[in-house]
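Ticket #4471: structure export looks truncated?
Reporter: QA, pipeline team
Priority: medium

Steps to reproduce: submit the single chain below to the structure queue and open the exported record.
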Amino acid sequence: MDNEMDNRSAEEPPIVNEVDKWLNSAEEPPIDNEMDDEDDDIIIDDEGMALDNSEQVFEGHGGEEVYCVNMHPTETTFAVSGGKDDKAYIWNVETSEMVFECSGHTDSVVFADFNKNGSMLATIDMKGCIQVWKMETKEKICTFQTEDVEQKYPIEESDEESDPPQSTDVKWATWHPLGNILLVGLVSGTTYMWNVPNGEYKQYPGPGLASPCTSGAINPDGKSAVFGYKNGSTRIYDLATTQLVFSFIKGRELHFGQVNYVSYDRDGKNLTTASSDGWSKIINTTTGKIVATYQVSSHRPRDYGEGTEASVECATINSRFNLLAQGSLDQHLYIWNLATKQLVKKIEHPDGITKILWDGSGSKVFTACLDGVCRLWNGRSGECLFQFHGAEGSILDISLSKNEKWLVAASADGNVRSYSLEETT
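Actual output as written to the record:
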């Protein structure tokens, strides 16, 4: 399959008529817009200190890097965070008070999130220990170990001389959107799906050894899932039958670099990838065709590998307005019109972007940045509406409360900050 389509489509995603009106309702700056000088400067308060406009700072991780943070789906003042201290904590974003500690891990907690109704919490560490907690009683209800279902062996290609990655190490995880089921992607390339709490599981093989499963997402209909791999390939599986539905080979067919992120649109009809090669691809989930390609850099894809400056770290489809947003290490947020395949916004940042979130209306987008600042942007005009300061390290993860009153940001400085969004409206 020849995917070098230069942003042309073999089968276009559905066109949302509202998009043109929405995009034209604000005066558009030039696509290559630069940030104002004031945006590049650290904001200083009256005492000469860097501004911290957070509501609360949770310091429970003892200064160790915090890798993940998520808001509770119903208790909208509760957040959970996990980090390098081998712990996860639930805490109150209004008071920073710890609700309870999730202990028992022996390595960095890289995933901590609630199931759909918030009745359970899963915490997963890098070495493959999966713990599930019942929120009502704050008790652990089950524990799974990846090494119980996957042969453990070191990854020989690792550059690390001590404690090299093992096949059973965890790369990503997510809850199923419709049930108490966890999907976990491993360094071996295999993805496992566990039924909680009985422990029954299914497995979905990867493309081969030395190609870890680096990303994954479940179709909103709950029936299928897409997995991305370090070698640039992607697979779509039927979750119930474990049958491989579509497979996209690394290189010319899909990506020349690691697939960092995958996500579906609201209806599950299309999905997008984000790769270290500087590209995103739109895949029609019914036909299995790559219907569009979007590049953030003019450099050739094969010139870029994992962690390079052109890497697309995240990409999400805005289904309401038929837009694609990409966050890249090249210090830009890109917004594309999926109907016309035109770049409508290119918004500069002081450093690379690690995560992006659309708000519920689809008109605003949050970005998390390696410079330690989160920003809120008007998706129509490209105007920076608000900056969230205080972190002294890179922002590694962000989450938005369901009622959109709170933003929480996990940082490499070892803290998690909560920001009230009332003054940003």
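Status: closed, not a bug. The export was complete when the record was re-opened. Leaving a note from the reviewer for reference: The longest strand covers residues 139-145.
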